[in-house]
Amino acid sequence: MITFRRAQASDLPDIVAMLADDPLGAGREDASLPLAQGYVDAFNAIDADPNQLLAVAVEGGEVIGTLQVTFVAGLSRKGAWRGQIEAVRVAGHRRSGGIGRKMIEWAIDECRARGCGLVQLTTDRSRTDAHRFYESLGFTGSHLGYKKTL
Fold this sequence. Notes:
- The chain has six helices and five strands, in the order βαααββαβαβα.
- The protein has helices at about 10-20, 25, 35-50, 75-80, 100-115, 130-135, and strands at about 1-5, 50-60, 60-70, 80-90, 115-120.
- It has a five-stranded mixed sheet, sandwiched between helices.
- α5 links the parallel β4 and β5 (about 115-120).
- The protein is globular, with a radius of gyration of 15 Å.
- The model has no long low-confidence stretch (mean pLDDT about 95).
C-alpha cells in the first residue's frame, strides 16, 4: 500500500537519488554521500515554508516517489491560489506501475484542500512521455515556459 507524507530530513538521500536518476538530472544533480550542503539548506528552507510541500510516496518503508508542491498566491483569476507541482520523480525500479498517477492525483487533492483554483506544472520539452502522461491526467499544454540559468 502506497502512502504519501511530508518529506523528512532522513528522506533526503532517496529524494536526491531520484532527482539524479534520469538523463537530465544526471547532468545537474549529485547524489554522492554525504550530500552537498546545498541540498540540506534547500530542504530546511522548504520544510520551514508553509507554502511548500515536499512529499514522498512510501511503500513498505521504502521511498519510491517524490514531488514538490508550491502554493502560490496571485491576483489573477480573482485572487486565486495556484498549486505548482515540481520535481516529480518515481524510483527507477518502480516506474510504469501507476505510482506517478497516484502521486499527481494526491498532489491535486492537496491543492484542492488548500483552496487552489488552478494546478500547474512544467516539464522539459524533451520529456515526450511525460507530456502524454500529464495530458492523460487532464493537464493541457496551454503555455510556453521560459527559464534562464543564473
